Amino acid sequence: MYEPSPASGQVPGPQRIPPPRTVQNAVKFMYAGAAVEVVALVVALITRNSMKSALLRIHPGYTAAQLHTAVNTQTVSLVIGAAVATGLWLWMAWANGRGYNWARILSAVFFGISTLDLLFTFAAVRAPGSLIIGFVIWLVGLGAIVLLFSRESNAFFRQPPAFR
Questions:
Q1: DSSP characters for the chain?
Q2: Residue 125 and residue 131 in contact, taking contact as beta carbons nearer than 8 Å
Q3: pTM, whole model, 2 decimals?
Q4: Quick count: other Cβ atoms within 10 Å of Cβ 50?
Q5: Could you tell me which of 86, 74, 87, 7 has the C-alpha nearest to residue 44?
Q6: By CB neighbour count within 10 A (0-12 exposed, 13-18 middle, 19+ buried), where does 32 fall?
Q7: pLDDT tens figures, 45-78
Q8: pLDDT over 90 for what percent of the chain?
């Protein structure tokens, strides 16, 4: 029986493993995490007056200038924090979607940091909105981590760098 040889003379090597459904869903969770961060920022900016009230309860002796400075400082830190967090969610979605194992590990580290942040939020912040949004963001991260480290995802992250 005759079999034609490949036209280029090269034998096809192993094929790239496409991302399994677990990785695809983890990436969707990460995009959702980025969206929740943006929504949380918008809500925080809309409710700046409640921030003023909370600051006045904590520091009743603040002058108008001190209150204005404190609110602006907190607003700027919220905007910077949300921008960084959104960027990290998007970066991890991109890198994990391409099968970089370092990104999977770094995502787990970021989730650990998020867990510590949530614990500190529960201990220090009494605003129900902050607690709820922090918990929602944490749950999104938990979903992504569980999917990234599931058995179905392992082969995708173990393929050689040439296939990414």
A1: ---PPPTTS----PPPPPPPHHHHHHHHHHHHHHHHHHHHHHHHHHTHHHHHHHHHHH-TT--HHHHHHHHHHHHHHHHHHHHHHHHHHHHHHHHHHTT-HHHHHHHHHHHHHHHHHHHHHHHH---HHHHHHHHHHHHHHHHHHHHHTSHHHHHHHHS-GGG-
A2: yes
A3: 0.82
A4: 12
A5: 74
A6: middle
A7: 888 888 788 888 888 999 989 988 988 898 899 8
A8: 55
- Residue 128 has what pLDDT? 79
Sketch the domain layout of the chain as residue ranges: 21-153
Other C-beta atoms lying within 10 Å of the C-beta of residue 135: 13
Asked whether 137 and 114 are in contact (CB, 8 A), the reply is yes
Q: How many CB atoms lie within 10 A of CB 131?
A: 14
Tokens of 140: 């999104």
Q: Model confidence over 104-120: pLDDT tens digits?
A: 999 999 999 999 999 98
**101 touches 158 (CB < 8 A):** yes
